[in-house]
Amino acid sequence: MSGSQLWAVDVYGRGFSLWAAGGRWRRVADLLLELKRVTGSQHCCWGIGCDHQVYLHVYPSQVPIRHQEKTYENQRWNPVDGYTDTLLPTDRWQWTDESGLNPQPLHSFVLPSANWEWEGDWYVDDESCGRESSETGGWEYAVDFPATFTKEKKWNSCVRRRRWLRYRRYKALGSWAKVPLDRARPPPEPFTDISCGGWDMSDSPEKHIYLWAVSQQGKLWFRTGIRQQNPEGTCWEPIQVPQEVAQVSAGPKDLLWVVLWDGQLLARTGINKDCPKGSSWELVQPPNQKGAVHVAVGLTVVWAVTKDNKVWFRRGVNSHNPTGSGWISIGGEMLMLSMGPNDQVWGVGSDDRTVYFRHGVTATEVTGRSWVAVSAQLDGSASTNHSSVHVQSDASVFAGEVTTPSQGSVLGCDDTDIPKPRVPKITSDSFISALVSDRSAPAHDPPSVAHPSVPEDNQMKSQESDSSVLSPSSLSDGSETPWSNVDLEEMKGSVPSSTRSSVATYPIELQHNTVVQEELPPWAWVTGGGCDISSSSHVDLFNISGATQLKQSSLTHPQPLPQPHVVLSITEGTYLKLLMCDSVRVTRGCMCWWRDWTPHQWEDVSVTLEQVTGAGAQTGDVLYLYYTHDQEKKYVYAVIKEVTALVPVFRDSLYTMAVYTPERTKQRCPILLATPSQQDFNTWLSLLNESCCASRGLGEHPSKQAMWAVTCKGDVMVHEPSPSLEAPAQYLPCEHMFWRQVPAHLLCVESNSLGVVWGIAHDHTAWVYTGGSRGPSAQGKHAPCSISDVRSVYIYENQRWNPMTGYTDKGLPTDRYMWSDASGLRECTKDNTRPPSPQWTWVSDWAVDFGVPGGTDKEGWQYAADFPVTFHGYKTIKDFVRRRRWARKCKISLTGPWQKVPPIALTDVTVLPCLAQCSLEQVPVWAISEKGDVLCRLGVTTNNPSGNSWLHVGTDQPFKSICIGGGHQVWAIARDGAVFYRGSVSAHNPAGECWYHIPSPPKQTLRQVSVGRTSVYAVDENSNLWYRQGLTPSYPQGSAWELISSNVCKVSVGPLDQVWIIADKVPGYPSESSGTVCHRLGVKPMQPKGLSWDFGIGVNIVPTYHHHHHHLHHALLHFPVCCSLHPSCSPCPVPFQTNVTIYF
To answer: Peroxin/Ferlin domain spans which residues (predicted)?
Structure first.
């Protein structure tokens, strides 16, 4: 923008300004003025002179700065003289302010400084604007002075007053003017540093600027009274600081940091528009042990420079969290930094004293990509007729000296030694001399390649230099044959150890009338507070794009030892593609948060995801929630690497996701974030999923060793186990397991470590996962297809009998709703019942469901004595209530890597667990059809996971559960609870020979069985967990059942006999129903029953079942785990049913 201006001071104290639209460095008009520090805003610039006085430069404007002075003349009426200046002793003074409490005679008004001048004499304010007074004379009348004044004179008006005005105008616009000392106050100590900010703290049109300064004794001062009509301010006020201050930096809003003499930092808290000075300090440790020497504060960012000139970026800084969370190392060595209005970064190099700009800084890429040198020439250059190299444009301020990506690192370990960058000035003479001395290049070199030799003391060595453009001033010998249109490239030959080269793709032309550029001075300070530009803006300051094309051979990266650097003129598109550097990426948005405290309700919050990209920085992603409670700014955060699950739900007509962490899993209180927009929800869910996977190094598709799960909503989740998941020394607790979503909607999932994954939908359709296929034909065959599922939504119609009318919908006051859910606690009518989420659509109308457990009469009714008791399908004389279930089908369609397996509908499926490196001709897959038939799938391989055909296994009754374990052990449970073992099953005889009946536990009916290597566990209808004793290779049926635990919904046993269950109850949470994943600890070969349970993620878990296996130390452990989390009335209603099969 045309009004954006950059200010800088060289080491000689000379001040310069540079317009962002392009141009040259222009020295301040006052040649005698010597400055040490400057700080700028979009309206003015402040500075500290070498005389330790404060100077102010207000930018010229068409609107003058005028200040109105006013005073009131008071008179009282007496019977003799009328209204006179003679007042009573108890009256106010003759000339006062409006309140009458302070005397203000005309002669008491003086100009605050020599920078002001009067715009005329005093005049009466009678709406005549200084012209001749009207008839009223500007008087206002009242009965007495404390009363209300009016323009109308009445018979009892004993006093009157009128206002006198005079304007003064600020006349020092466009020039540096000394700020006067405070009146009647002792002058503060000499200042050594100064910083202005806070102009964006308020939304009012008038922007207030708050000025901070540091004195020689380490005290901090605050300038009051600065506003648009009073740019100089009123007075200096001291601010209490616990230690001596060395430097201060204020941001455009409410951020303020200071550097202490001992290298530590302080962040000011409590700053707002009503309290611009803040309330307290918080100590911040420096980035390294050497300590900080400089800090630069922006809108929501903080940069720092340590004593070794290293550059650092502070993560997590926000007005809600002014201290931030950690430091990131940014490449480059700087003396100081300055922030622009939109967090653009400027700096002065520590070695070459050049002004740099951080290229690539945006609202998202807050750390930018590289440093670009500002190479604008000084104004006032002379013209010469000597032959010289022509500099393309004097408006090209940024030389295109672009540094390589910085090595960002999360603070938390010893500092890594970074090669010390040094970018000495290369004078025009040395550059041209190098060109002239290399005119006679070796004959075998390409004609467009030159080998410039730069003296040792004039060599260019940039710590992050990918490209730079040199600005020569004159030729060493104008009589020599000129060079025309030469392109410099990187040296292809050997480089002598005593020399280093700077190579450029740089057009050089011969012209007779060119400008001899004066060499830039070494800079000492720069301020970009008033330079409002962005990296995406097309500004002539950035000479990053050029006509020449980037050559791959011309790009080098910094090495620990001195290497030839490349000076390039590159196109911006190529530049952004190649310079992929470590950085901090920030994504911001607004969502609703189910707050943690009572009363629980939705709270509007600002959501920020801070991602750190680069080697070794994957652990640094953090999710922040910023909110205001009781007028106090607060925040909640979650480290992305600690997130264990992102579960989508639909609640209160909002698209909601539950963010689980280990701590919140234990508390049963996930972070609930919601938005009314499905597009925003999908964007955030995808972004958080990508961040979670990137922080753990996970690929796009689940691995063959992944653990699969299904929520009670049908969402498919997977967990990538580490090789040490079952190692006792590095055991991963259940609540630390990370689950991510796979596109699908299923009832259960089964998998093994060969990548064979089967699933069953709610409509009993079988699906096979094809995303893990590694075959050459996987590209076309396993492309994402549409996967659909159909499920029913149920509501209950309830009625009570009375002697007059029989069964009616008029219940007792204590009864449940007459239209409700199964529990009767929630009202559910046909009109207000919706599909589970907006992804579902109705595919049928409401109809009476006659397939309710317990049976119904011909109209679908079930009867009971009262609502809480068990219902039955026939009416008795003692039945006073009845209900019937209504069902309506809905359908969901998703796109994912799944293949449908027609035509038989299934209710259960199991896959043989096996080692990852084993080679099976066929993978045994057993299933149970919807009719209860036992089936064996033939032709299942890793390249053909869906198999070829079904083989029917004969039974004399329908079955409901089946499981295949190590050694082809097949156990099954019939619908009446009878347990069977299939004999003679092998790779050559996949269907086995016959069924052996196994006695059930005494007086118990089993409903589910799980088989490991030498262990068999089962769960009965009363949620008891049983262990089968006496299993041997010669007698695989075992001898007896032993009770292990109660409150178990599902069990899964692995190939190494590890045991996972779904707990019906969790200790400490009696209100929860089934749904927590638990792992059996202490399972050993000599102790297969284990010792205790490790409780993991889950809320209200109702399981389905499947297998998974993972190879560990050439041993096999298989355990299918099934769990689900159901909604609850607590603020943690996240459904998560995990159908997990885990193999090791």
So the answer is: 64-125, 138-171, 788-849, 860-893
